[in-house]
Amino acid sequence: MSDERLAATDLTVGYRRRAVLSGIDVTLRAGELACLIGANGIGKSTLMRTLARAQSPLTGRVELRGRPITDLSPRELAAELAIVLTDRVAAGQLLGYDLVALGRAPYTGWFGRLDDTDRRTIEWALDTTGSGHLAGRPVTELSDGERQRLMIARALVQQPSVLLLDEPTAFLDLAARLELVKLLLSLTHEHGLAVLMSTHDVEHLLRHADSVWLITPERELITGAPEELGLGGHLRRMLGDTAAFDPRTGTFAWDDGHAATARVTAPNECPADLLAWTVRAVERAGYRVGEQDPAVTVEVRASGGWRVGPRRLDSVQALVACLRDGG
Ligand SMILES: Nc1ncnc2c1ncn2[C@@H]1O[C@H](COP(=O)(O)OP(=O)(O)OP(=O)(O)O)[C@@H](O)[C@H]1O
């Protein structure tokens, strides 16, 4: 199909002595944000690097816009595909601006002289990634999160049609993570880029990704919409016996099938966030919140605080302690 940007066929990735993942058939399309998830050491980075031609497949092939990726010159490849890895860059004496400017290499001449278009693109990428203030700073002096923003800016100035990011949120603070996801959604949904990112920030990404590439503990790659993987039970099984995905809350949690049920009631005028935080506190105390056969009822009081049976509780700590005592 014409919107196929990156396609792998019967791909085996790994190292000289060992295949890490095999039998991979997968496609990344224009306008798609795909999220690659799986346990530590399962093969996410190895797959990413192979898709980007940073390492060779053991068998099978990768096509970029219908062309075998091995047929592209380095310049053609860099103008079509950018990858942001977690490896530390050897930045020497480079300033932030210079590091980002390196991404323009596929478009500049032999001497890397920047023209107005290059400079505008660099300014845009610095601005978009919130790293304008880092342009004049030596890269070696930057924090991991600051450097990560510049690496993303460097990938953006390549103006690729395919963007691969290996754990791009690992060093980012919460605000920067949210900004990055917002940026990736705009790049995919509004500008038609194809983006694949690996992440351990699963709960967050499941909310936004168009598709999930999940590597199971058996090293099988399963792809689908987040909801399809949820309905197929794949998310539930992802962490083995450690925890299970709760689609209601969109989080992974201990799968405590024996938790008692607590009913939570509140007056009509109860603010939504007070009710929501009460539910969280009740769950933190070890209960499942529901209506069926409740072992305890927690009442949010119109006059403030909570009531559990005859007990009035004025603080969240007191509420949780009371519930942990069995109400
Ligand atoms: N250069 C290498 N030579 C041999 N084996 C390697 C090499 N690099 C990684 N491996 C092995 O390949 C397997 C997959 O590693 P990879 O880095 O792809 O996992 P990952 O899913 O990205 O893990 P993480 O979530 O911890 O980053 C691991 O068992 C790792 O030890």
TrEMBL record:
GO terms for molecular function: ATP binding; ATP hydrolysis activity. PROSITE patterns: ABC_TRANSPORTER_2. Keywords: ATP-binding, Nucleotide-binding. It comes from the Bacteria. Residues 6-242 form the ABC transporter domain. Transmembrane segments: none annotated. Pfam families: ABC_tran. Signal peptide: none annotated. PANTHER family: ABC TRANSPORTER ATP-BINDING PROTEIN, HEMIN IMPORT ATP-BINDING PROTEIN HMUV. This is Iron complex transport system ATP-binding protein. It comes from Nonomuraea fuscirosea. The lineage of its organism: Bacteria, Bacillati, Actinomycetota, Actinomycetes, Streptosporangiales.
